[in-house]
Amino acid sequence: MHVPLTVSDFLDRAALVYPERTAVVDEPGVPGSFGTITYGELAERAAGMAVALDQLHVPVGGRVGIVSPNAARFLTSYFGVSGFGRVLVPINFRLNAAEIGFIVEHSGTEVLLVDPEYDKELAGVSARVRIVLDGVDDAELFAPAAGRVPRGWDPDEDATCSINYTSGTTARPKGVELTHRNCALNAMALGWHTGVTDRDVLLHTLPMFHCNGWGMPYAVTGMGGRHVVLRKVDGEEILRRIEDEQVTLMCGAPAVVAAVLAAAESRVSEGRPVPMAARNGQSPTRAVRIVVAGAPPPSSVIERVEAELGWEFIQIYGLTETSPLLTVNRAPLEWDGLPSNERSRLLARAGTPAIGVRMAVDGDGEILARSNHVFRGYWRQPEESERVFADGWFRTGDGGRFDGAFVVISDRKKDVIISGGENISSIEVEDALYGHPAVLEAAVIGVPDERWGETVKALVVLRPGATVGEADLVEFCRSQLAHFKCPTSIELRDSLPRTATGKLQKFKLRQPYWQDRDSQVN
Ligand code: AMP
């Protein structure tokens, strides 16, 4: 028997088994917050959303874009849009209006959902239908189905579930087309490797737009776990929610870990307790699990998470293109008695291939992967897709090696900077700088940063006779690009090293900032 894998399976099961259970505790005090809803209600609202999209004449395969921080409405859209055969386009709300406009246009988004906080800034970004998520404009969209039946969709596991735009090696973001099969198998493997059960309470510290929250929202839903929405990452707020909501699980980039450690430090200095474990029902207390990816976390940070917080640290590695799970590093039985510094050192590696994932390293040291989690291709960019698929393997653009069965990421082959877990295209920032009349040449590189892992640095050669201040150039970039992409420092140079063919030698430019480090990524 062959039954198509779709993301609707996750909510269908929760609604069948746990209709009365709390599904979501939405962020309180924001316009249109759902408050606390059960799985029965979540399923009703997802079906209601499908009915509303029927009424708006959005066909199967039609794209629905969403620009929103984490919210119960976003979680509902994973199911109300994708679960009924339409394609969700989750968009990074930190991008500026022009960047979001490009994604809306490129994806062919028919219905655009906009959080009220971004409504004014995005006034010029429109689609056939534009709905503000303020609890009024979207009241119809999220009303329970209440007996109304959505138009049917013949489930197809190879249909596109979402298009997740990611910055990469091109000046414009690329649309990663994830299928239902990709998303469903990723969620199952992720849930299994991180031990998700019906007792889990997931705090949404990872943006829901980022690769559909790595698939964790599907996994937690499938088990009937509880979602606690967090709109904005703040260390102390995370600790407070852990106490108030008995949180057991969260995901994030190393910057989230840094925020939590700083907040815990403040609490300790004030003599206040730091929540370590949650008790759910009658089960014994379990340590909070934090799943980290986006950059290699330093082993000293891992040691602090385990020693100072008493939490379990789990590292995963992957890309939006791989749904994202490729490897997982969760301490096995054999490491139980090891001294904490040794355990942390072992946990600092990206991990071993997840179930169903095959990995290899090619002659240039590039990590290759083969799995059902690997995406279909870039939306409407077949030439870019061709570039990343070779002989049945997906090229990650990351450099690394094997340490036994463990993958270690040590370098980046692609010209991408990752700051606070979000990708930034160097070329895009360079393009912006070239728009300034005083700039003759520009090279943008990632340099190590204590807080964000990496931060953007621009090396600039000015036109003869031109003068411009560093702050002015940064300001110029801020007027063109999302602020998180802008250089945090600029150095003026007389020239930039190039190869005989005129290619910039970025590795040479990066070298002085990365020397004395084992790894060339942070
Ligand atoms: P994204 O598609 O935005 O999720 O970014 C994927 C990229 O993040 C990968 O290609 C890596 O460069 C980086 N990355 C993700 N997880 C890890 C990790 N555990 N260690 C090192 N780099 C990582």
Task: Summarize the model shown.
The protein is an alpha/beta fold and 522 residues long.
Question: Can you walk me through this structure?
Answer:
The chain is α/β, with parallel strands linked by helices and 522 residues long. The chain folds into three domains: 8-352, Rossmann fold, CATH 3.40.50; 353-412, Luciferase, Domain 3 (Luciferase, domain 3, Roll); 419-514, ANL, C-terminal domain (GMP Synthetase, Chain A, domain 3, 2-Layer Sandwich), CATH 3.30.300.30. It is built from 15 helices and 28 strands. The strands form seven sheets. Strands 2-1-10-9-11-14-15-16-17 form a nine-stranded mixed sheet, sandwiched between helices. Strands 18, 19, 21, 22 and 23 form a five-stranded antiparallel sheet that branches. α1 (8-17) packs across α2, α6 (180-193) crosses α7 (216-223) and α9 crosses α10 (299-309). The longest helix is centred in the first third of the chain and has 17 residues, at 39-55. The N and C termini lie far apart (46 Å). The model has no long low-confidence stretch (mean pLDDT 94). Adenosine monophosphate binds next to β15, β22 and β23.
Notable features of this structure?
Luciferase, domain 3, alpha/beta, 522 residues, 30% helix, binds adenosine monophosphate, GMP Synthetase, Chain A, domain 3, 5-stranded antiparallel β-sheet, 9-stranded mixed β-sheet, 3 domains, Rossmann fold, single chain
